[in-house]
Amino acid sequence: MSTQLERLAAVIESRKPANGGDPAASYVAKLFAKGDDAILKKIGEEAVETVMAAKDVRAGADPSKLLYETADLWFHSIVLLAQFGLTPQQVLDELARREGISGIEEKAARPQD
Ligand SMILES: N=c1c2ncn([C@@H]3O[C@H](COP(=O)(O)OP(=O)(O)OP(=O)(O)O)[C@@H](O)[C@H]3O)c2ncn1[C@@H]1O[C@H](COP(=O)(O)O)[C@@H](O)[C@H]1O
């Protein structure tokens, strides 16, 4: 995994209540203290903001706007994974497992309902 993601995941993990995260001093600790619904709400907001940024960029806005919103979405996704005891490395492993498997072929090979 990229060391950037590793470092971010480690900092996020350190913000859990069980690891002494302080909601008064840390945004991530505050999210963990609020729980599932607050984290899921942020995912929804950041996903929508990413969609809107892409539309804005298509309409002529600076492409950095899309980078900024995607970073927010990735960051909050890593908080979500941590909340459920999962890591970015596990997502990268899943992507690696899929490498070279065409999405069209994979879908066609699924058992029919
Ligand atoms: N990468 C990030 C990161 N990206 C975005 N954010 C915060 O995510 C929050 C939500 O962004 P919004 O634009 O939606 O702001 P908002 O509307 O004020 O947010 P809400 O109060 O409604 O949640 C803002 O407070 C951002 O600062 C981040 N906060 C922290 N990190 C990383 O997490 C580490 C730990 O952060 P703390 O736990 O705060 O020390 C930091 O060192 C960074 O590496």
From TrEMBL:
Entry keywords, A to Z: Amino-acid biosynthesis, ATP-binding, Cytoplasm, Histidine biosynthesis, Hydrolase, Nucleotide-binding
Transcription listed as a keyword: no
Pathway: Amino-acid biosynthesis; L-histidine biosynthesis; L-histidine from 5-phospho-alpha-D-ribose 1-diphosphate: step 2/9
Keyword set includes Amino-acid biosynthesis: yes
Record-linked InterPro entries: HisE, PRib-ATP_PPHydrolase-like
Subcellular location: Cytoplasm
Enzyme class: hydrolase
Family matches, as CDD domains: NTP-PPase_HisIE_like
Catalytic reaction equation(s): 1-(5-phospho-beta-D-ribosyl)-ATP + H2O = 1-(5-phospho-beta-D-ribosyl)-5'-AMP + diphosphate + H(+)
Similarity annotation: Belongs to the PRA-PH family.
Protein name (record): Phosphoribosyl-ATP pyrophosphatase
Organism: Telluria mixta
Protein's gene: hisE
